[in-house]
């Protein structure tokens, strides 16, 4: 979903953050009907005023996503045997290279002894044939035998090392799926970034105790990514390195990140609409974030700084001439030509013609003026053109129409 977010800045150095969804035009403009300037409390006013303000507007792509560990190591024994020790439990903090579990080595040691004996024999044969000035073809065959025997020794030594399962990353043990006495078969291990341990298929192994799957899973708990997805329309606006704001759905503090990868192969979540995977690397160490937690994602795709705007309803275009009505110091209303730029939600950029702080007249919907229960109270307006949060007063009901004006 595409949104425009306003970070206003007035001459009084007042800064606020207002999220203006482009689909919220009717509601936002309707708020102006409640904030009424009453020059004559006994009469019904059809206008209000707003201040031209300078602010920063951010165009964002929004979605929802899930926090995942930045790294997940799904580890399994690469050799078979009986599990002799399991040295960690869930929740233990481990370092890269730390031993996690071991299997018996009797068979592996015997295989290494046999490989070394074969190598010795091959080397002796090569030495003997060399001393006897054997034919070149014989010496070549002897050398090939030595090379093959050396390879088998290296493999046997590696298998013996693999009898100890070690962590490939520093992190926290997320799961242990083996126990002492289990018979395990040789499998493989893998380390991935941002994968869910419960769904990842980066490793495979076999275990009499647990079937196929990682025997020990280690995840990072101080570095995270957020996995999300966007539609094809938003995909074209994304690129690696864009900044993102990530709001945990449980109400935690906002954290920040950057787009680290953008998938180009679409998937169908079952709704019939193709979406594309996007991964966001969370910046720095964060607290209160947990793997599997959901987040609201806002990716900043474009930022406009020092933009002078007024409410779009204040802008009128007639016969090609665009104007706003400025409230002069003596209270007179002066129709002023302006040059307009982009539209940001219910605000319109003013390129030239007025300055920040100028008061402009904003027409209200017919029949939505002041007076009534507010008779005798001073006029009310929104400083800087901002609408107050927290909803509108219930008296008289909320405005139902969308004011005219805007760009013609």
Rg, Å, rounded: 35 Å
- Molecular shape: elongated
The CATH class of the domain at 2-58 and 304-385 is identified as: Mainly Beta
Distance between the termini: 27 Å
Instruction: Give the overall pLDDT as a whole number.
Output: 79
Strand content: 35-45%
In the CATH hierarchy, the third-tier topology of the domain at 2-58 and 304-385 is known as conserved putative lor/sdh protein from methanococcus maripaludis s2 fold
Describe the strand arrangement of the main beta sheet, using strand numbers. Answer: 4-16-20-18-17-21
Number of helices: 4
Low-confidence blocks of residues: 8-43, 195-212, 370-408
Instruction: State the CATH architecture of the domain at 2-58 and 304-385.
Output: Beta Barrel
For the report, how would you describe the main beta sheet? 6 strands, antiparallel, barrel
Helix percent band: 10-25%
Please provide the count of β strands.
Answer: 27
The structure class reads: alpha+beta
Key terms:
Helix Hairpins; 408 residues; 6-stranded antiparallel sheet; conserved putative lor/sdh protein from methanococcus maripaludis s2 fold; alpha+beta
Give a topology summary.
Blueprint: E1 2-9, E2 18-20, H1 25-30, E3 47-51, E4 53-69, E5 72-75, E6 81-86, E7 93-94, E8 99-103, H2 106-131, H3 136-161, E9 164-166, E10 171-176, E11 183-185, E12 190-192, E13 206-207, E14 211-212, E15 216-219, E16 224-231, H4 232-235, E17 243-248, E18 255-262, E19 267-268, E20 274-282, E21 294-311, E22 316-318, E23 321-327, E24 333-337, E25 339-344, E26 347-352, E27 359-363
Antiparallel strand pairs: 1-2, 1-4, 3-27, 4-16, 4-21, 5-12, 5-15, 6-8, 6-11, 7-10, 8-9, 10-15, 11-13, 13-14, 16-20, 17-18, 17-21, 18-20, 19-20, 21-26, 22-23, 23-24, 25-26
Helix pairs in contact: 2-3
């Amino acid at each position: 979903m595409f949104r425009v977010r306003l970070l206003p800045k007035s001459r009084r150095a007042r800064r606020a953050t207002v999220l203006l969804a482009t689909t919220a035009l009717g509601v936002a403009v309707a708020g102006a009907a409640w904030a009424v300037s009453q020059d004559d409390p006994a009469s019904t006013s059809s206008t209000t005023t707003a201040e031209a303000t300078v602010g920063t507007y951010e165009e964002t792509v929004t979605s929802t996503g899930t926090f995942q560990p930045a790294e997940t190591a799904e580890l399994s024994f690469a050799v078979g045997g009986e599990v002799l020790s399991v040295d960690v439990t869930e929740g233990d903090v481990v370092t890269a290279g730390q031993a996690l579990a071991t299997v018996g080595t009797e068979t592996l040691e015997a295989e290494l002894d046999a490989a070394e004996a074969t190598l010795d024999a091959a080397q002796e044969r090569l030495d003997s044939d060399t001393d006897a000035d054997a034919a070149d073809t014989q010496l070549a065959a002897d050398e090939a035998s030595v090379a093959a025997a050396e390879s088998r020794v290296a493999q046997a030594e590696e298998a013996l090392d693999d009898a100890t399962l070690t962590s490939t990353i520093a992190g926290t043990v997320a799961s242990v799926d083996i126990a002492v006495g289990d018979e395990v078969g040789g499998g493989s291990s893998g380390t991935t970034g941002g994968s869910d341990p419960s769904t990842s298929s980066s490793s495979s192994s076999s275990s009499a105790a647990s079937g196929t799957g990682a025997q020990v899973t280690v995840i990072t708990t101080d570095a995270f990514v957020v996995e999300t997805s966007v539609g094809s329309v938003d995909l074209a606006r994304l690129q690696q390195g864009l900044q993102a704001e990530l709001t945990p759905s449980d109400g935690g503090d906002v954290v920040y990140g950057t787009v680290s990868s953008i998938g180009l192969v679409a998937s169908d979540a079952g709704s019939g609409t193709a979406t594309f995977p996007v991964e966001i690397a969370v910046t720095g160490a964060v607290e209160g974030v947990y793997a599997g937690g959901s987040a609201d994602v806002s990716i900043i795709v474009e930022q406009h700084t020092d933009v002078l705007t007024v409410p779009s309803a204040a802008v009128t275009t007639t016969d090609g001439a665009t104007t706003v009505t400025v409230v002069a110091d003596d209270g007179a209303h002066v129709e002023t030509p302006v040059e307009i730029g982009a539209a940001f939600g219910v605000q319109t950029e003013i390129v030239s013609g007025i300055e920040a702080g100028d008061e402009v007249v904003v027409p209200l919907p017919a029949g939505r003026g002041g007076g009534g229960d507010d008779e005798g109270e001073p006029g009310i307006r929104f400083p800087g053109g901002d609408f107050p949060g927290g909803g509108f007063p219930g008296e008289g009901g909320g405005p139902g129409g969308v004011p005219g004006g805007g760009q013609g």
